[in-house]
Amino acid sequence: MSHTPELVIRDLHVAVEGKEILKGVSLTVRPGEVHALMGRNGSGKSTLSAALMGHPRYVVTSGAVRFLGEDLLALPVHERAKRGVFLCFQYPQALPGVPVANFLRQSVKAVRGAEVPVKEFRPLVKKHLEFLGIEQSFMTRYVNDGFSGGEKKRLEILQMLLLRPKLAILDETDSGLDIDALKVVAAGINQLRTPDRAQLLITHYQRILDYIAPDHVHVLMNGKIVKSGGAELAKELESRGYDFVEKEAG
User: Fold this and answer.
1) Closest Cα partner for 38 from 247, 246, 250?
2) Which of 29, 45, 93, 164 lies 20 to 30 A from 7 at CA?
3) Average per-residue pLDDT in the chain?
C-alpha cells in the first residue's frame, strides 16, 4: 500500500452566507483507508463534503486541500470529478425526464473524457445491477423521480461503482435506509475498498460501521475535529453519545 497521502486537509475554514461553519479542520487520508466522520446535526459534516466537491455556496475562507499532490480547491467541480473525487449525496436530487441509463452513461463519459462503447457499458451495468439487486427496468426510469429512499441510495452506489473514484465522499448514505437496503449499500461501498482508493464516510450513527469497518473515526463538533480514534470510538459514541467527547474537548 502506498504511503503517499491521497487527501490532505489543512486548517480548513468554510463559511456559508457569511457564517463560519468549519473553523480549522485538518485531516489526512491515505490510499486504502476508510475514515468515518461522525458528529451531531449542525457540526459541519455536510459542509466539509460540499466544500471538498466545490459547491459554490460553501466558501473556503482559509486553509488548503491537496488531492494526490494537487491543489484541489483550485479546480472547478468537473475537474475534481475527473481527478477521481466522488460525492454520494445525503439527499439526491430528482431529474425528471432524464433516464437513468442516459445519466449513467453521460456521467462515465464526462469523467473518462471519452464516449463509452455500448458493448462495454451494457455488460458492466448489468453486472452491477445484479450485485445491487436492481431490476433492469430501473434503467428506463427518470433519475430519482418517484424513487424511494433506498432506490436513490442504490443509484448513488451504482454510479460510484461505474465511476470507480479514487476518493469517495459518502455523505450520510445510511440516512433513511432500512436494514436490507443498508446491507446492499454497504456491500457496494466495500466493493471499492481497495489499496489504491480511499473513502470518507460521513454518518450520525454507528450502525453502518457494523458493515463497513473504518480504519479511523473522527468526531466533528462546532466546526472542528475534536477527537480521533479507531473503530472502537464509533462504538463508544453509540453507547455513550457525544456528551463525553464534548466534556473532554472542554
Assistant:
1) 246
2) 93
3) 92
How buried is 146 (Cβ within 10 angstroms: 0-12 exposed, 13-18 middle, 19+ buried)? Answer: exposed
pTM of the model: 0.92
Nearest-5° angle of CA 233, CA 234, CA 238? 115
CATH class of 7-249: alpha beta
Q: Give the helix/strand (H/E) hosting 189.
A: helix 179-191
- The number of CA neighbours under 13 Å toward the Cβ of 195 is 3
Classify burial at 135, counting beta carbons within 10 Å of its beta carbon; exposed 0-12, middle 13-18, buried 19 or more.
exposed
- CA gap 63, 3 in Å, rounded: 23
pLDDT computed for residue 250 by the predictor: 66
**In one letter, which amino acid is 218?**
H
DSSP string, 101-117: HHHHHHHHHHHHTSPPP
Q: Which three cell numbers, joined as nine digits, stand for 110?
A: 464526462
